[in-house]
């Protein structure tokens, strides 16, 4: 299966002589050298792919370049260098009219601050993207009504935006994106303006929708726990560069550098890690024979701890064919819990053997 979205060596430079600045960056210059000359390198040599049906999270601190990167993915910002491929089409080669057509029908965006029209009803807001496409009124209202129901807003169609809570307004923004049936959703800090409990609820909503709709999503956040919870894969950005890309387990167990290691040190690993990440693959016969209650490679860490507490022996981990693929001794669980303030020691990952991804969202 080919990638739905592919970014290749993207650069975005603001200021004087941007092409010259890209040449300097390729030659080894850093951001500070360019800034001294009045030039800002927002994104530097960013490359990644996003598979169909994947939630790809780009995370980093403020000023890391993540929002600028997102806006290059749908042509709102033109890259200084590099290309963006979408379903095999080079978006950077399209005319303005062709780009508008792609944004209207194939790529939707969900913003941080809702971006609702106060003088339009909830239904009219949800149907706005379809109105831009020229969809007949009856059809767009039907599709918008269905999208609102998916987002838990059935019965609110005739309400006005100022009658809704912040979380409900964000659901309208999500419904507007879903109503267009776009192939790609771009979500720019979409839950960052919400209170913590409402934010968690919106994360649950997105994961529930994703299980049935299987959209391709690029999600921008500065919150590491949100990234770990939502992302099938995560790209960590710093100073305009992507410094590591991988699953939540990859990043927790194998941080690429000291910056990533310091970034993840406060993450609750028990909500991210799975049996497949922590199991011992060197299985002895007596361990295999004593297995009664078992786990699978995607059993969450906290469930694994509860299971281990009930058993006098290591927990056996079985694959989909009920074949033994590893065991988890109790001391191994204790070891990972004891490393909450440090970097865990790497263990074999299912990816190391060329297997399927077995991470589970907390």
From TrEMBL:
Q: Where is the composition biased (Basic and acidic residues)?
A: 349-362
Please name the Pfam families in this protein's record. ABC_tran (PF00005)
UniProt entry tagged with the keyword DNA-binding: no
- CDD domains xrefs: ABC_Pro_Gly_Betaine
Q: List the keywords (alphabetical).
A: ATP-binding, CBS domain, Nucleotide-binding, Transport
Q: Where is the ABC transporter domain?
A: 5-264
* InterPro entries xrefs: AAA+_ATPase, ABC_osmolyte_uptake_ATP-bind, ABC_transporter-like_ATP-bd, ABC_transporter-like_CS, Gly-betaine_transp_ATP-bd, P-loop_NTPase
Carries keyword ATP-binding? yes
Q: Which GO terms describe its cellular component?
A: membrane
Q: Which GO terms describe its molecular function?
A: ATP binding; ATP hydrolysis activity
Spans annotated as Disordered: 338-362
In terms of superkingdom, the source organism counts as Bacteria
Tell me which Gene Ontology terms the entry assigns under biological process: glycine betaine transport; response to osmotic stress
List, alphabetically, the NCBIfam families matched. proV
Assigned protein family: Belongs to the ABC transporter superfamily.
**The protein's name:** ATP-binding cassette domain-containing protein
Source organism per entry reads Streptomyces cadmiisoli
């Amino acid at each position: 299966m080919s990638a739905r979205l592919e970014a290749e060596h993207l650069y975005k430079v603001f200021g004087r002589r941007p092409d010259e600045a890209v040449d300097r960056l390729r030659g080894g210059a850093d951001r500070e050298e360019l800034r001294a000359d009045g030039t800002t390198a927002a994104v530097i040599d960013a490359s990644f792919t996003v598979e169909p049906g994947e939630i790809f999270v780009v995370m980093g601190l403020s000023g890391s370049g993540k929002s600028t990167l997102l806006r290059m993915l749908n042509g709102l910002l033109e890259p200084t260098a590099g290309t963006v491929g979408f379903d095999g089409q080079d978006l950077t080669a399209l005319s303005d009219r062709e780009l508008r057509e792609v944004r209207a029908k194939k790529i939707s965006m969900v913003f941080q601050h809702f971006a609702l029209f106060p003088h339009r009803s909830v239904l009219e807001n949800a149907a706005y993207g379809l109105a831009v496409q020229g969809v007949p009124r009856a059809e767009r209202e039907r599709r918008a009504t269905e999208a609102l129901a998916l987002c838990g807003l059935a019965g609110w169609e005739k309400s006005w935006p100022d009658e809704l809570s912040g979380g409900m307004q964000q659901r309208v923004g999500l419904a507007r994106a879903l109503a267009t049936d776009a192939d790609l959703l771009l979500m720019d800090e979409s839950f960052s303006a919400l209170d913590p409990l409402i934010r968690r609820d919106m994360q649950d909503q997105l994961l529930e929708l994703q299980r049935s709709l299987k959209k391709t999503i690029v999600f921008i956040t500065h919150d590491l726990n949100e990234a770990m919870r939502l992302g099938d894969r995560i790209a960590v950005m710093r100073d305009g560069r992507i410094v590591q890309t991988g699953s939540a387990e990859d990043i927790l167990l194998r941080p690429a550098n000291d910056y990533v290691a310091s970034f993840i040190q406060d993450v609750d690993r028990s909500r991210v890690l799975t049996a497949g990440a922590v199991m011992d693959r060197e299985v002895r016969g007596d361990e295999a024979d004593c297995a009664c209650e078992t786990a699978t490679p995607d059993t969450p860490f906290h469930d694994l701890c509860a299971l281990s507490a009930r058993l006098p022996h290591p927990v056996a981990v079985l694959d989909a064919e009920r074949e033994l693929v590893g065991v988890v001794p109790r001391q191994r669980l204790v070891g990972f819990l004891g490393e909450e303030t440090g970097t865990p020691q790497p263990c074999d990952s299912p990816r190391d053997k060329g297997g399927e991804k077995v991470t589970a969202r907390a």
